[in-house]
Amino acid sequence: MIDILTDPGLLADFLATSLRLSVPVIFAALGGVLSERSGVYNIGLEGMIIAGAFGAAVGGYFAGTPFVGLAVGIGFGLLCALLLAVLGVSLGVNQIVAGIAINVLMLGLTDFLSRIVFHGQGNTMHLDGFMPVAIPGLADIPVVGPVLFRQDLLVYVMYALVALTYWVMFHTRWGLNIRAVGENPRAADTAGISVPRLRYACVLASGGLAGLGGCYLVLSQIFLFSEHMSAGKGFIALAAVILGRWSPLGALLACLLFGVCDALQLRLQFANPEVPYQAFVILPYAVSILALIGLVGKPTPPAAVGLHYQRESK
Amino acid sequence: MLEAIRLLYAMKSVWAILCALLVGAIVIRAGGSDPLAAYAALFRGAFFEYHGIATTLVKMSPLLLAGLSVVLPLRAGLFNIGAEGQIYLGALFATLAALYLPPLPGWLHILVCSLAGAIGGGLWALIPAYLKAWHNINEVIVTLLMNYIGINLISYAVSGPMMEEGAPYPYSAEIREELWLPHILPRTDAHLGVVIGVGLAVLIYFVLQRTSIGFSINTVGRNPEAARYAGMSVRRHIVWTLVAGGALAGLAGTYEVLGLKYRLFHMFSAGYGYDGIVVAFLSGSHPLYAILAALFLGGLRSGANIMQRAVGVPTTVVDTIEGLVVIFVATSLAFRFEQSRWASLWRRRKEMDAALAGRGQQGSP
User: Fold this and answer.
1) Which residue range is the domain that position B335 belongs to?
2) Is A143 within 8 Å of chain B by CB?
3) Residue ranges per domain, chain A?
4) Do B90 and B183 belong to one domain?
5) Do A289 and B281 touch (CB under 8 A)?
6) Which of B5, B79, B183, B295 has a 20 to 30 A CA-CA distance from A26?
């Protein structure tokens, strides 16, 4: 295990793997941050990731270009998010129940439909995807270059979206409104902010982002669709939102930490079978719980998260 | 007319399930199969054939116990998303008790295993319960995260210290035959677990409905402030209901081992803990309706295999139907008679009747 620390080539390899494993989770976690900051639990991230992955595969399969796959994948994520928004924001259904329903529905529906759409060849097809593009200059920096700047299009999109989400959240009026709606919807409403409209926007954005995470799985990583390929990434993203204390940059760092854990766990499974790899699978979840207890800083969730907002009872 | 509309509202869960089946039919049709034939095979297989009924009962056992593990804490206002992890810990403790305790007479040892399983699940729920009661940390998130820790702990146990030698797949040694739960239908897999589940559902119903413990659980759930004023310890109720929920989920795992698998397997639970949330939700967190909800979902799961063999529709379509059922039932909850246009008409008519009756009395000579 020590060889990855002494050999720069191996280290770069290891870090690049860690980054690639964390990218889909980063997309979903950004969505989770947006949605929870506006006061809506999004337990349905897992379902939105698999919907995005399925959409990416369908679009890529029939159009033959990853860009159509990307559009369809994001579209499917948005549709799931619309369902969550209608149930959780408009109808006031318990957001956790609505999210779980989306997960159950999408995991089943994509599994079922993939057999029909791909004629049982979902596991053997090879889709055209996004290939790594080196950024001239930056890619030649030792270790950092190949890790960060010899990636594919979606990774660069991810960098941009993290920065954008951070900027919107903390440096624009919208961001202030989002945070206000998540902390104290009644005060925000009094100040003339439309609570449902802002929550719809945030939930939809979170669905699009989670769908993008699914697109990355299919179009940049595996190049095929397999059922249940989201494999709990939506739930890891929820953990990252907590560990990252509901901030885009915090969530990014948490996801990267989880990515390193995941890469270590994979390496251990193959290279050192005598070390229990489960320890590293457990680590992200355990660290998140410790973070909640306050051992890793003091987290405070948005005050109104999970609560349905109604103006006045008629 | 208005009475009929009120009845329509009262039966909204039924309409929701029918809507879900209707959309499910469209999905099956899209898959190129005949929805009617598929549903006929599904429900005949699940509820009208001897071996199908047995399979339904086998699936119902963990669904019901996991459902109850969500229902009970929900009454105190707590969301137990952690049934899945508690199932695994319960199964681990029960298997340990079965394999490593000195042998006792069969029935006594089964009792000891059940107790161990309940303790395993309960202990796993104690962590989020303590964090909720004393540090006000959201139990939804903690129970969810602990599922993954629990599942991987068991995965470590059965692929490491407890793994049977030479096994091709991570699983423990087999438990003694005296510890296998008795079968309730001859020549099938249907075991006593489902009977225990129904018994516990009835017990929980009586505790919630007829005892002072149940009354204070409901009060804590509805209005913690009022409960505190009335001298009830909110903290103690949080801890005990969540731990009891964990124990119920632990039993779900226990009876999967003692009744069906006879070993502890890596990843043995097919998401029963999450389905338990669906059961609790469909039942409206009522223990007796949870029996019906678990029977329905168990039937879907058991009929799915028969449907696949008969009509060629992949079994995963029942996951789709399950998701649709939850979504439609959830949507139906938003339609309340009291808030509808009809309710105001209803009230107006009642007032009119009352006024007419009043005048009739005055005006009569």
Assistant:
1) 1-28+316-349
2) no
3) 3-293
4) yes
5) no
6) B79
Rounded distance between C-alpha atoms, residue A218 and residue A229, angstroms: 9
B218 and B338 both lie in a single domain:
no
Report the CATH architecture of A3-293: Orthogonal Bundle (1.10)
B174 shares its domain with B227: yes
Residue where the block lists tokens 């759930």: B221
CA pair distance B326, B282, nearest whole angstrom: 7
The Cα–Cα gap between B190 and B192 comes to 7
Q: What is the pLDDT along chain A (314 residues), one digit of tens a residue?
A: 566 777 777 888 889 889 999 999 999 999 999 999 999 999 999 999 999 999 999 999 999 899 999 999 999 999 999 999 999 998 888 888 889 889 989 998 998 888 888 876 666 678 888 888 888 878 788 777 877 888 889 999 999 999 999 999 999 999 999 999 999 999 999 988 999 999 999 999 999 999 999 999 999 998 999 888 888 899 889 989 988 889 999 999 999 988 988 888 888 877 777 778 888 888 878 888 887 787 655 567 788 888 888 776 44
Determine how many CB atoms are found less than 10 A away from the CB of residue A199: 23
Give me the residues paired with residue A133 across strands: A151
| Domain shared by B78 and B24, yes or no | no
Find where tokens 């760092």 sit: A253
How many domains are contained in chain B?
Answer: 2
| Residue found by looking up tokens 């720069």 in the block | A8
Question: Of A92, A98, A238, which is closest to B144 when you measure between CB atoms?
Answer: A238
Do the chains contact at A104 and B153, CB–CB below 8 Å?
no
A92 touches chain B (CB under 8 A): yes
CB pair distance less than 8 Å for B274 and A100:
yes
Q: 3-class SS at B219?
A: helix
- Tell me which H or E stretch contains A133: strand A133-134
Residue B297 lies in a domain: no
CA distances from B2 to B10, B174, B283, B335 (A): 12, 61, 26, 16
Entry pTM: 0.87
Whether residues B24 and B69 share a domain: the answer is no
Is residue B48 assigned to a domain? no
Which residues of chain B lie closer than 8 angstroms to A43, CB-CB?
144
CA distance B291 to B56: 12
- Here the ipTM equals 0.83
Give the residue from B286, B303, B335 where a domain finishes. Answer: B286
Q: Are both B162 and B266 inside the same structural domain?
A: yes
Closest partner residue to B323 (CB to CB) among A87, A101, A242 is A101
Give the one of B148, B156, B331 whose C-beta lies nearest to A91's C-beta.
Answer: B331
**Amino acid found at A103:** N
Contacts of B175 (CB under 8 A, 6+ apart): B95, B98, B99, B257, B258, B262, B263
